[in-house]
């Protein structure tokens, strides 16, 4: 019996796969994530032995779990691209056209450069119909409604890679039969492709008819499309490229994280290179938090925001709602490369409060209050911390734009003596931004829960460029 399991890693919208033949008892894993227990569990569930682990390419948005899974299982061979590859660790190299037998089906490697030079996709076909693939693991080359970015390796390589991506899409994928199922490496929300669709899979036929990346008559117009409108590359992507090319450290278990009583927590927080991450809700954080803490709420996207905002060697102190949440939140953080934990606050903020240690607050203002403040407080700056695309599509009248991604190292162009109210789409990013500002010496900062969603739901005026519908 054919087995196919799709593993969606929320927050980074990463898709990995376990594919196997229950009768033959063997399986392969495609692009495993950092915390690899899930693959061993699925293999046991189906009575399978994982014999092969395949990497489609050198990943940029998460730390690969391939080496850790190989070490954990003891039965699997790790295969990486042997075409234009820059891997610097021991693994078997797969070549274009190489075939692998899994009983009732076989996997064939296809070199599909463009997102990266070494990128491989993997066709699946029935062994008795080896000339006719019915599905393909596309990695980051072709997505649902989108395609991989060719600009993650820098401007110097972007032009050449866009040409290779064009060839991959038009000379390979579009020549496959319409019924071929595509199984991509990411879903909606990943920055590895623009506007990736919500569905986790598609077909070549559907993409042929609907995917805007497959509508360009020549390489020049295609290049202008894929590079010209590309959003900024997340800061941590080049760093994770280096980690994954060199070979991530083997993680046989989650890193140790010590439970620290409040006074020890405070002492460690004062050491160089330590960052406090408070994962509580924005309202709880605003009501009282440890001075200097950054509010990145307990949601899947915590992975990407920790990766985007902090150096990989930064030591993390965690604050959680319940001590039972520590391991789950720790898993989110290690996926984007952070494995250096200084500890967590044992007993949470309740323990801190009863210890009589200092607290700070961040005012939380409703959109109704914000609207009134904008009329009457001349020294108020409404700060939109969303992406440039969101800002250009519409914003609160009189607001100033400062994308949160630009706050990573320092916050420039803003006067610390000014009063600010931060907003985003829902308040999540705004709370990150307001806490960053507070930690860096901005004394009068408020956050707007609900943010743009609440503002527009209330029917308040918005500024929109000409041609953008209200």
Structure description:
- The protein has 470 residues and is of the alpha/beta class.
- The chain has three domains: 2-246, Metallo-beta-lactamase, Chain A; 259-354, Rhodanese-like domain (Oxidized Rhodanese, domain 1); 363-457, 3-Layer(aba) Sandwich (Oxidized Rhodanese, domain 1), CATH 3.40.250.10.
- It is 29% helix and 22% strand.
- It contains 15 helices and 24 strands.
- The protein has helices spanning 37-46, 66-73, 155-172, 204-210, 219-228, 236-246, 262-269, 282-287, 302-309, 326-334, 348-354, 367-376, 388-393, 428-439, 451-457; strands spanning 2-9, 14-21, 26-30, 49-54, 77-81, 92-94, 99-102, 105-111, 120-126, 135-139, 142-143, 146-147, 181-184, 202-203, 259-260, 274-278, 294-295, 315-319, 341-345, 363-364, 380-384, 400-401, 419-423, 445-447.
- Strands 1-2-3-4-5-6 form a six-stranded mixed sheet.
- Helix 13 links the parallel strand 21 (380-384) and strand 22 (400-401).
- Helix 9 crosses helix 10 (326-334).
- It is globular and about 75 Å long.
- The termini are far apart.
Instruction: Name the CATH superfamily classification of the largest domain.
Output: Ribonuclease Z/Hydroxyacylglutathione hydrolase-like
Number of strands: 24
What is the CATH topology of the largest domain? Metallo-beta-lactamase, Chain A
SS element count, helices = 15
Sheet with the most strands?
6 strands, mixed
Q: Which stretches are low in confidence, meaning pLDDT under 50 for 5 or more residues running?
A: none
How widely separated are the two ends? 52 Å
- Overall tally of domains: 3
Shape: globular
State the strand order across the main sheet. 1-2-3-4-5-6
């Amino acid at each position: 019996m054919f087995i196919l399991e799709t593993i969606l890693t929320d927050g980074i919208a990463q898709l990995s796969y376990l594919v196997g033949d229950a009768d033959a008892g063997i399986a392969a894993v495609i692009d495993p994530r950092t915390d690899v227990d899930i693959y061993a569990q699925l293999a046991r569930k189906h009575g399978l032995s994982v014999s092969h682990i395949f990497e489609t390419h050198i990943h940029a948005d998460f730390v690969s779990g391939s080496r850790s899974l190989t070490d954990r299982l003891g039965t699997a061979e790790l295969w990486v691209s042997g075409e234009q590859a820059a891997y610097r660790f021991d693994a078997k190299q797969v070549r274009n056209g190489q075939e692998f037998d899994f009983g009732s089906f076989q996997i064939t490697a296809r070199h599909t450069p463009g997102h990266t030079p070494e990128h491989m996709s993997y066709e699946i076909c029935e062994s008795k119909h080896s000339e006719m693939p019915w599905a393909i693991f596309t990695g980051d080359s072709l997505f649902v409604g989108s395609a991989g970015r060719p600009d993650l390796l820098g401007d110097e390589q972007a032009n050449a890679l866009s040409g290779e991506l064009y060839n991959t899409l038009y000379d390979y994928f579009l020549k496959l039969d319409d019924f071929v199922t595509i199984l991509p490496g990411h879903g909606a929300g990943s920055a590895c492709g623009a506007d990736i669709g919500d569905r986790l899979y598609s077909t070549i036929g559907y993409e042929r008819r609907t995917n805007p990346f497959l509508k360009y008559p020549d390489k020049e117009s295609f290049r202008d499309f894929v590079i010209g409108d590309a959003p900024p590359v997340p800061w941590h992507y080049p760093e994770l490229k280096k980690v994954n090319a060199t070979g991530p450290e083997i993680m046989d278990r989650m890193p140790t994280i010590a439970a620290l009583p409040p006074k020890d927590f405070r002492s460690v927080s004062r050491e160089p290179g330590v960052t406090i991450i408070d994962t509580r809700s924005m309202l709880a954080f605003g009501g009282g938090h440890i001075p200097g803490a950054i509010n990145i709420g307990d949601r899947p996207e915590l992975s990407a925001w920790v990766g985007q905002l902090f150096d990989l060697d930064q030591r993390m102190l965690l604050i959680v709602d319940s001590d039972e949440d520590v391991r789950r939140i720790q898993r989110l953080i290690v996926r984007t490369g952070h494995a250096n934990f200084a500890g967590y606050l044992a007993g949470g903020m309740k323990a801190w409060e009863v210890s009589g240690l200092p607290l700070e607050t961040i005012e939380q203002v409703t959109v109704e209050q914000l609207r009134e403040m904008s009329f009457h407080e001349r020294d108020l700056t409404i700060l939109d911390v969303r992406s440039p695309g969101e800002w250009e599509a519409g914003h609160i009248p009189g607001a100033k734009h400062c994308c949160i991604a630009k706050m990573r190292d320092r916050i420039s162009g803003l006067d610390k003596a000014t009063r600010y109210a931060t907003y985003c789409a829902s308040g999540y990013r705004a709370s990150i931004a307001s806490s960053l500002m507070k930690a860096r010496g901005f004394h009068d900062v408020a956050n707007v829960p609900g943010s743009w969603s609440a503002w527009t739901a209330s029917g308040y005026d918005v500024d929109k460029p000409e041609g953008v519908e209200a």
